[in-house]
Amino acid sequence: MTPLHSTALSFPKRRSTEEPSRLSPLAKIETRPPRVLDFDIETRKVGFHTAGKFQPDGCEPIALAWSWLDGPVEVYVLGSVITLLEKFRRVYDEADIVTAHYIRKFDLPVLNGAMLEHGFPPLKPKLTIDTKLDLRSRAGVSVSQENLAEMLQVAESKFHMSDYLWREAARLTPEGIEKARRRAYDDVVQHKAMYAALKKGGWLKPAKWWRP
Predict the structure, then answer these.
(1) How many contiguous H segments (helices) and E segments (strands) does the chain have?
(2) Rounded distance, CA 22 to CA 39, Å?
(3) Dihedral, 20, 22, 24, 25 alpha carbons, nearest 10
(4) DSSP for residue 212
(5) How far, in Å, CA of 113 to CA of 146, rounded?
(6) Hey, which of 80, 116, 117, 180 would disulfide with 63, CB 3.0 to 4.6 Å?
(7) 208: which DSSP letter?
(8) pLDDT tens for residues 139-154?
(9) Tens digit of pLDDT for each residue in 149-188?
(10) Domains of the chain, CATH where assigned
């Protein structure tokens, strides 16, 4: 795996006392293109707080993959949750923008819940581009990542997991964890290509702040 790297960011001093959300989202990034981190998590249910798909309560990450837009994909699976969270937090803090599909309603709240459970401070506010929530107005089409990627003729595909394989992943069997690892990896590969296609086509709204 490519080692994690750290880059010191140097921004000009803000000339306004306004809250970040009231400034142009990219106003502070004046000397270089923003660093965009694409990531994905796979989860399992560990509580009984809510029922239904894509509900963050009672979930914990079991696989986590990420990639800079111009870099390779790194993927980690549940062994030590603390190590997994530490590694993600490092690249998250380096990023100017993070992107994923349904990021503000699922991925980031789940990760922040894990930070709380394992004794970390909350994730910092971050500019986000959510390829589901920040998609421009439309009707009559599914906005799942899989469907959008196919409509956009993205060559990269998601790794399909049946209910049986999800059960194996939730039980943390070696085979199940390997499937979750592959799913997270493929999701990031596909999402990077889909993000590029949506951006090129003018389908994404400007970045928005996520605040825990």
Answers:
(1) 5, 6
(2) 26
(3) 40
(4) -
(5) 26
(6) 180
(7) E
(8) 999 999 999 999 999 9
(9) 999 999 998 888 999 998 999 899 999 999 999 999 999 9
(10) 34-210 (3.30.420.10)
